[in-house]
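Hi there, hope your week has been kind to you so far. Please have a think about how the structure follows from the sequence. I've dropped the whole record in just underneath, so have a look:

_____
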Amino acid sequence: MSTARVFENANGAEIMQYRSVGKSGLKVSKVALGSWMTDLKGGPAVEIAAQTVRLAFENGVNFFDCADAYSGGEAEKFLGRCLKDYPRSKLVISSKVFFPMGDGVNERGLSRKHIFEQAEKSLKNMGVDYLDMYFCHRYDPTTPVEETMRALDDLVHQGKILYYGVSEWSPVQIMKALEVIHGLHLYPMTVLQPEYNMVDRYVEDEIFDICKENGMGIVPFSPLAQGLLTGKYRKGQPIPEGSRATHQADRQINNLLTDDHLDKVEKLLKVAERLNVPLSVLALAWTLRDPVVSSVITGATKPEQLAMNLQATELELDAETLKEIEAILDYHPFYRKIG
């Protein structure tokens, strides 16, 4: 999980750093751009989103993440249109499969049928011949893990995907998959995409070690905890107008706005202020502190948000600062003594 060379602009200034994805040869920018929250309702929002994609590429971002279920496939089509004029060799494009894409009983899950059909659809939506990374969005208890892993292995051998991994799977589920892969001598799993940020650290307890032992990289989503770690939500203050907490249907961010989390935000803001960086930059740099994290998938919807997030590639947190942050976060892994 090494850090590769930096990207430089015409003036020779360093813009982006890259890391290997696990022990593979694939290099991804430390900051990636995701498409989950891309606003595709039309009007100025679409052009702003397109500007954000262009700014990302121009500043060395090579990793663009999407999924078949985002906006019912429209997010893939949008991303494909934005990236079509750039050299394919300079792009790392990923998508995911699992969630329902229709009313049919086979239009969901991780069966061989659904994986093959959705992989083809994702390629068509984005106008590409292959996906660099392909993720199983969730675990499917109705399909044998062997069937899923064989399907992914076949897609690799067909050249339709280059690397594959899983997203929100438990350690036991990941180990089941690895056992099947090793037992059947399938193409190895390369990457995981779990949620990971300062207030959601479950992956540190077991998944970090699984990845390190098996040569897999981690490319977490929601590294800013749905916007909690941007500092826009403050204790005792009204929710900002137009923010995600005012319109997100599943209310994930609203559920994070607890007194405990907001107290931690206030303390973290003081650390960020001392370092002269925005809280979001501090949070992203913290998430990247362990090299097993290959890249952080950010959900910037405006160019200025992305420009701010890119600063995280240049921020190295020293031991004292990391110790201070640990004291603020006060994280306690769950351990059950046996015997």
